[in-house]
């Protein structure tokens, strides 16, 4: 049995599959650019009542705001000097959607819990719409 996730404009650096926290061997993994799907073929067959976890290390693009997904845009501060500010934000309902931000099942019929690790320069302020789990500085 294969596992397929949606992915668009993502560069996969590494992939791991775990069953009950034990790393599993993979036969293959490949990306299909016509369907925008990344398919993983594990050595073992997936079984019910076992917790599986996929871990990906990847890079992606920041899109133009018209394309949605992870995008950049600017806003003008009209109160303090009419200066332009730039932000990076997400919008998954149009354009490239979630699949251009992280590997996922990009379909409204699926709902999932996920965690995000964000690395940003200390001069920037990272914002989200969920409670912050942890924050730390790296060197």
UniProtKB/TrEMBL annotation:
Please name the Pfam families in this protein's record.
Answer: Peptidase_M1_N
Query: What GO molecular function annotations does the UniProt record carry, in alphabetical order?
Result: metalloaminopeptidase activity; peptide binding; zinc ion binding
Which residues does the UniProt record annotate as the domain Aminopeptidase N-like N-terminal?
2-136
Gene Ontology CC: cytoplasm; extracellular space; membrane
Q: Name one GO biological process term.
A: proteolysis
Q: Which domain of life is it from?
A: Eukaryota
The protein's name in its UniProt record: Aminopeptidase N-like N-terminal domain-containing protein
Q: What is the lineage of its organism?
A: Eukaryota, Metazoa, Ecdysozoa, Nematoda, Chromadorea
């Amino acid at each position: 049995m294969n596992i397929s996730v949606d992915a668009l404009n993502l560069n996969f650096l590494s992939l791991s599959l775990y069953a009950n926290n034990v790393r599993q061997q993979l036969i293959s993994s490949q990306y299909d650019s016509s369907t925008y799907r990344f398919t993983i073929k594990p050595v073992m067959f997936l079984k019910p009542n076992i917790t599986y976890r996929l871990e990906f290390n990847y890079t992606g693009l920041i899109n133009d705001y018209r394309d949605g997904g992870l995008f950049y845009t600017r806003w003008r501060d009209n109160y303090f000097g009419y200066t332009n500010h730039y932000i990076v934000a997400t919008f998954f309902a149009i354009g490239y959607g979630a699949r251009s931000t992280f590997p996922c099942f990009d379909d409204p019929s699926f709902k999932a819990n996920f965690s995000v690790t964000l690395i940003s320069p200390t001069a920037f302020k990272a914002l989200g719409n969920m409670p912050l789990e942890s924050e730390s500085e790296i060197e």
